[in-house]
């Protein structure tokens, strides 16, 4: 802001002058005390003050500060402005100020030391032939106003995109939900043979998985837009991620594409395969990219793999041939500036939503996605992730598919009857001794009563006492019993808070049964 007290004090001083010589003063003859006072004020002021004649020429520069020195670069011979247009503007306002005998204000822009500066100019009659001009630099206020305008436009754009995004995602969720309800109705309506039941169940399971994936997309989009993604690193073997993805998508290709597409993995060197990264995020990014590659590829090979460059960056790449891969989406990803907002834009097609989420995740991990397409339709999508320094873990052995936990005591906290029946069915062939509880308090009672417990599987949302409070109580008692959490909360911060509470492992519902069984097996056979 310009220096208000100094400016208005100057006006008062000028009012004291008899500009009309009504007190027999001669024009341009100034009172000595008044001039001294003006000189003191201008020395203290951060503004530039000078006198101009009727032609707009500067006759005297009164102020003496750094701003005054900077402004002198705009002057010619120290008496008028280099820029003819600006000189004419000042001269015109001088004439207007003297003729009307009143203060005037206008704004202009000067180039000072090669940089544009927004100036507020105040001109006040000083005598019959002179005007006192006070210039104040209002560039910060102008920039703030411009930024506020841009922010308002950005907020309006974001609001529009969010409304459209939510509407379209609502339609996307309804489609598989309709299939679930429809197939469930058919399953209960008629008598079906075993093969028909299996087909209907597979359709229900497939549609339910699609709903889960859509919900994950919604959650991830929300987290990226609001910059709430947490990166939780752990030691992990990259080749395990690559081969798990190959196994998963190979089964999908066999069912849907009749093996016309082949997944080829190029593993990283074994001595470099174990790295300290957020393996969950890496797998999530690769799933989005591979899913898009399978949709867009022509029959043939999809090659994906990883390598480590000399800059300690982990590089992942996916290559395939596509008959239709729009240049617009390539430009959108490669030139992305505000990826958090662009993720909401579905104008290029919802099939690319996963790629945009992947782009957002890579950016938040300090990496970058690049896409290249050749004239022959070959598409390569790759991304680099810097590897944080960490202690490498040892390779874990292959656990296998059989789980025998004879004489092992597993305490399970679950208040939903359906899930209790599910766990009973899952663990019935393991020979483990299962004990169920419905509340957190019951778990505490059993923990203090039973002489031996090998593992506790805890739901987080429980009546009376939550699972994380139970975990803190058990750890507070000095126990090292393996604690595995299961919860419907999928926010990245949830995992971090549960690990801090004392859990060894964390599973988000719907739980991958094989991963759960192998994790439990690891702790029960230690």
Written account of the structure:
The structure is a single chain. 47% of the residues lie in helices and 21% in strands. With 526 residues, the protein is an alpha/beta fold. The chain folds into 4 domains: 4-137, PAS domain (Beta-Lactamase); 156-225, Helix Hairpins, CATH 1.10.287.130; 234-386, Heat Shock Protein 90, CATH 3.30.565.10; 409-524, Response regulator (Rossmann fold, 3-Layer(aba) Sandwich). It has a 5-stranded antiparallel β-sheet, with helices on both faces. Strand 5 (104-112) and strand 6 form a beta hairpin. It is elongated, with a radius of gyration of 37 Å. The two termini are 70 Å apart.
How are the SSEs placed, and which strands pair?
Blueprint: H1 4-16, H2 32-44, E1 48-52, E2 58-61, H3 66-71, E3 75-76, E4 80-81, H4 84-100, E5 104-112, E6 115-125, E7 131-137, H5 139-189, H6 194-225, E8 234-237, H7 238-256, E9 261-266, E10 274-277, H8 279-296, E11 300-308, E12 313-321, H9 327-334, H10 339-342, H11 353-364, E13 368-373, E14 378-386, E15 409-413, H12 417-427, E16 433-437, H13 440-449, E17 455-459, H14 467-476, E18 483-487, H15 492-501, E19 505-508, H16 513-524
Parallel strand pairs: 9-11, 15-16, 15-17, 17-18, 18-19
Antiparallel strand pairs: 1-2, 1-7, 3-4, 5-6, 6-7, 8-10, 11-12, 12-14, 13-14
């Amino acid at each position: 802001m310009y220096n208000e007290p100094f400016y208005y004090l100057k006006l008062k001083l000028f009012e004291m002058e008899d500009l009309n010589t009504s007190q027999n003063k001669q024009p341009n003859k100034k009172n000595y005390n008044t001039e001294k006072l003006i000189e003191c004020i201008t020395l203290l002021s951060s503004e530039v003050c000078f006198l101009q004649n009727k032609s707009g020429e500067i006759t005297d520069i009164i102020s003496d500060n750094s701003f005054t020195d900077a402004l002198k670069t705009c002057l010619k011979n120290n008496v008028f402005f280099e820029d003819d247009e600006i000189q004419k503007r000042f001269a015109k306002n001088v004439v207007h100020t003297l003729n009307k005998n009143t203060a005037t204000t206008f704004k202009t822009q000067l180039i000072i030391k090669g940089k544009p500066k927004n100036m507020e100019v105040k001109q006040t009659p000083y005598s019959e032939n002179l005007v006192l001009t006070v210039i104040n630099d209002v560039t910060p206020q102008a920039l703030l106003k411009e930024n506020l305008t841009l922010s308002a436009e950005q907020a309006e754009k974001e609001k529009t995109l969010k409304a459209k995004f939510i509407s379209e995602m609502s339609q996307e969720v309804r489609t598989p939900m309709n299939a679930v309800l429809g197939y469930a109705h058919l399953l209960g309506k008629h008598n079906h043979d075993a093969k028909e039941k299996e087909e209907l169940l597979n359709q229900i399971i497939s549609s339910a998985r699609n709903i889960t994936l859509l919900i994950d997309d919604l959650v991830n989009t929300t987290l990226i837009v609001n910059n709430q993604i947490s990166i939780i690193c752990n030691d992990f073997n990259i080749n395990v991620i690559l081969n798990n993805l190959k196994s998963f998508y190979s089964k999908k290709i066999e069912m849907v594409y009749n093996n016309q597409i082949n997944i080829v993995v190029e593993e990283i060197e074994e001595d470099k395969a174990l790295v300290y990264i957020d393996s969950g995020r890496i797998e999530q990014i690769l799933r989005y990219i591979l899913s898009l590659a399978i949709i867009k590829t022509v029959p043939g090979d999809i090659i994906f793999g990883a390598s480590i460059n000399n800059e300690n960056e982990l590089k992942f790449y996916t290559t395939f041939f596509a008959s239709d891969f729009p240049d617009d989406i390539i430009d959108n990803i490669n030139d992305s500036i505000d990826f958090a907002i662009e993720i909401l834009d579905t104008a290029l097609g919802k099939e690319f939503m996963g790629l945009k989420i992947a782009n957002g995740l890579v950016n938040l991990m300090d990496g970058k996605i690049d896409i290249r397409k050749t004239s022959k339709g070959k598409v390569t999508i790759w991304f680099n992730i810097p590897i944080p320094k960490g202690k490498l873990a040892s390779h874990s052995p292959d656990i296998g598919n059989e789980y025998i936990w004879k004489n092992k005591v597993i305490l399970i906290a679950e208040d939903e009857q359906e899930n209790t029946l599910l766990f009973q069915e899952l663990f019935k062939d393991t020979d483990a001794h299962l004990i169920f509880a419905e509340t957190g308090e019951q778990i505490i009672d059993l923990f203090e009563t039973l002489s031996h417990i090998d593992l506790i599987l805890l739901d987080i949302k429980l009546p009376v006492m939550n699972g994380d409070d139970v975990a803190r109580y058990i750890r507070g008692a000095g126990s090292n019993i393996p604690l595995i959490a299961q919860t419907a909360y999928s926010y990245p911060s949830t995992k971090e808070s549960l690990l801090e509470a004392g859990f060894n492992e964390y599973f988000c519902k719907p739980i991958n049964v094989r991963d759960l069984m192998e994790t439990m097996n690891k702790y029960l056979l230690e």
